[in-house]
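FAQ: What does a ligand-bound record look like?

Like this one, built around cytidine-5'-triphosphate:
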Amino acid sequence: MALIALGVCGGIGAYKAVEIARGLQKRGHDVAAIMTRSASRFVGPVTFEAITHRRVITDQFAEGANSDIEHISLATDAALLLVAPATANMIAKFAHGIADDFLTSLYLATRAPVLMAPAMNTNMLDHEAVRANMATLRTRGTRFVDPGDGYLACGWVGKGRLAEPEEVIEAADAILRPSATLKDRFVLVTAGPTFEDIDDVRYIGNRSSGKMGYALAAEAARRGARVLLVSGPSSLPVPPGVDVVRVRSADEMHTAVMGQAGVADVVIMAAAVADYTPRRRAGGKIEKSDAPLSLDLVRTRDILAELGATRGASANSVIVGFAAESGDPPVRAREKLLRKKADIIVANDIRRADAGFDADTNAVTLVTPEGDEDVPLGPKAQIASLILDRAEARLHRVAAN
Ligand code: CTP
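The answer part, i.e. the structure of the complex:
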């Protein structure tokens, strides 16, 4: 999680900067938006204010801009200065050290890395002056997100449109990413619900969306791990660099996990695996009648408990389980930690509307043999990062023993 100063220049792509700010936040970053005077003619500063929950500076001489501590300290606190869209004018000003507004002054004052996503007309982008300015900035370490090809707002077709928000977000995130701390490691993550079929039409499922598990897989991949995501039914996109095995039932998830867990360095059981499944799946569709219908359910195999029981005393892997609780989560999670022989149990309280199933945020307690660690409400990407920090620390400890 880092503070990103997002400079927005005046161009039709300015509206995409809103999506970029949102995307960066989703990845756990804090965003402070700075708009040039012309940018605010394309998008209202209030939009950025509402999204970033910070005051947006549009004018260096605006009241408060020079007394507001948050803004004065931006030059030292920002971990990245991202400019999207970056106009030919802003590229020229950065290249020549002109400081005539807040953004250009910030560029000179900060020592944070600089990333620019240019957007302009094809001929402008191709102009020697612009190319020379970009070359000057490159020699100073400024990085650029290549503009896209296509239909430009000016009616031309060619290179010059602002890169897709996701590309800009990924480029920014890659700069901020800690070094590949899980390089050469194999991380297995389960995610989502399982569906236990009753007949050919109906099943027993649960409300898990898979968001937490997918966030964990994405973060592990970002840290350089080889990642296998064993996913129950979920419509979420597979994160870049992650291999996926899709399963439906608890039994299928058991087979997929047990086949790979032996060689995994870290196994994270984020899936909400069904505890019960119909003893027999009916063929076709069960016809209704006036009589009550009972389902005969049997326990599924507990994958997490089996992993704990079979890994042996000299284990050099780390096993992380989850516990969705509705009463005293840490106490019940500690009982699970011992019974299932896991290293970390991530406990969340399903009574909270802003955490757990289907929410974009989570608030958890990490329960380990050493104690409980309360993690306050935050985006799931941020929680995923913390869980992996703790798993990595344990991995180093078991390797040293
Ligand atoms: N789990 C598993 N296999 C199962 C059931 C659960 O591996 N058949 C894992 C889940 O992936 C999760 C943890 O065990 O990591 C959850 O433990 P569980 O005992 O099922 O607890 P809850 O579902 O949280 O709640 P309850 O105790 O009420 O069942």
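Follow-up question: can I read anything off the structure? Yes, for example: Residues 288 and 294 are 12 Å apart (CA to CA).
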